[in-house]
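Lay summary. Proteins are chains of building blocks that fold into shapes, and those shapes determine what they do. In this project we predict the shape from the chain. Here is one chain we studied, written as its sequence of building blocks.
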Amino acid sequence: MNLLKKISSLCLVLLTVVGCGPLDIAPVDRFTELNFWTSGENVNNALNNIYSGMYNSTLYFYNEALSDNAYTAQGSAAGNPEAIASGSFTSTLPKFQNDWSFYYSGIKSCNIFLTNVDQNTTLPAETLARMKGEVRFVRAWHHFNLMKWYGDVPLLDRNISPDEAKTIARSPRATVLKFVTDELTAAAAVLPSRDAYAPADNGRITKGAAIALQARALLYEGNRMAEVVTLCEQLMNDQTTNGQYGLAANYGDLFSSPTVNKTSNESMLALQYVPGLRTWSEFFDFAPRSVGARTNSLAPTQELVNDYIMLNGKAISETGSGYVESNPYVNRDPRLTATVVYDQYLWRNADGTTQTIYIRPGSDPVRPALNEYALNGQGSPTGYYWRKYYDPNSLANFASGLNLHLIRYAEVLLMYAEAKQSLGQMTADVWDKTIRPLRQRAGFTDAAALNFPTGGDLTQIIRRERRTEFAMEGLRIDDIRRWRIAETVLNGYAHGAKFGDPAVDNGYIRAQRRQFDPAKNYLWPLPASELNLNTSLTQNPGY
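And here is the predicted shape, written in a compact code that computers can read:
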């Protein structure tokens, strides 16, 4: 059975022994903590639960609202990320506690598995080694995410007792990073390449994913770019050992075509979903109301839309770009249309029919009083909706079985380009291996967009490329924090389309006033509840 269909909500429950006999003798009619791990099926179920707890769709989508890519006015179910964006939060904000608990619960599951799995003697040794590699990857993934948000965090490299959990201190961030990279190196050494897995194991963590995540972790440091280059070159140049990866032929298909979404060799790591069995439903609150959505709870910003370049390769603010503010969506990067729904967007339905999405007030020629903007408070507060991840085969209420990509090969190419640029080694040859194929895949044909730039800020060009390639995939907030530009892009208003008062911000909607204090906001506060439980923990500065 395919791994996608193996992931279940089974909880690992170790039963205690009752009766009159010796307490170290396991009963033969049921599993206990003495014999649970002797069953290969139990080991597989425990591993599948670790996969299902690695990440979730709420984190994947709503972390966009922490960035300048998106705004949510209804984020209570996601822990109120809009409060973080606005700067009006304390250490009691639910998101801090929810995220902290999520990652440490995942680490706990990994440590229980690694502590006990060697009790199993029924599974082949190579299978157990591979499984431990998968779990060590997930444990590294959780620690990496904690380190990103909180800095110094408790490092749990073994299963600790409840009493220990009340006294463990924070480990220095550098120590946590070393643990993450060491774990990923060890995992890569035992994990198969994507090509070595049987079809039934499609979706398992691979050697390539471990190398790519290590590259991401080091890229985020900013001062280890030579190592990033080496890791990316392993994936780009040695695909016999590390797996055959490439770009999907069509950008939009990665997010809407079930076949491409699930089988493309561009996907290096993804959250696995199956229609009718394990689905996500956030798109019910992302799509336009006129195509069946319920409300809007995550809207693209004008700032995101502005960063999509013109077909001639120029930014909209550059001289000679051809950008016309009164007709802003023509001759733009095709990834804009694949990602964002704008006024008078031609929406293609699942049955092949199309309809025009009228968002600007008065734009519908038949019913000018109706529009998608702020429909009874339920429409988009920015005048934009999402197209990316629209599932034409979704079930009721947009319940989707599409996978959510966590690492794509496109990221390897852009990490490589960024690292080479940082080292002063960006050349036409590097460009032709990285940015050029991404733009060709997107649909650019103008030589001015495809060829290596002879002028302009290459760092900004690469950063803009990364933003538009990965919009709605949760990477933007990490990028603006590691580039240390958050105080620039997260202070002031997040805007929407030009539907507002012409006397205010030239008519662009003011969606949310945002604040970012660089003296403290590059780290999140540790949850107040954790500090109350564990007096060995210390709070981050400024909180």
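What the prediction tells us: The longest strand covers residues 267-271.
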